Amino acid sequence: MCIFCKIVNKEIPAKIVYEDEDTMAFLDINPRNKGHTLVIPKKHYETLDEMPDEELAKLMKAVKKVVEILKPLNFDGYNIINNNKPAAGQEVPHVHFHIIPRYQNDGDVVKFGEVKKIDLDEVEKIIKQ
Ligand SMILES: [Zn+2]
Fold it and tell me: 3-127, superfamily in CATH?
């Protein structure tokens, strides 16, 4: 059983900030910023595209709810991040959305890579095959 499923089953303690029938949110134990929270479906799915639409919709509603719950932290903005598969930086193979509160001038909390020269016509051709 994966570590997030163990948190859902309360076999591993976590700082739970929100929970309903289908979803759970808890503070990330390796926070990138104050209030960094993970929102997960209680049912185990590895990646977002494996989730049925209705369950994904519930998860996204929970993400929004948790943003509201975190507002007492007085952040100035926030990032929502979802990584799928190790190549994309997914560390736990159970779908999760990161909510990372952002504060003015808080540095390189979340960073996009460099802009790459990519042939957009070629990409379009591949996906429209
Ligand atoms: Zn799991």
Answer: HIT-like (3.30.428.10)
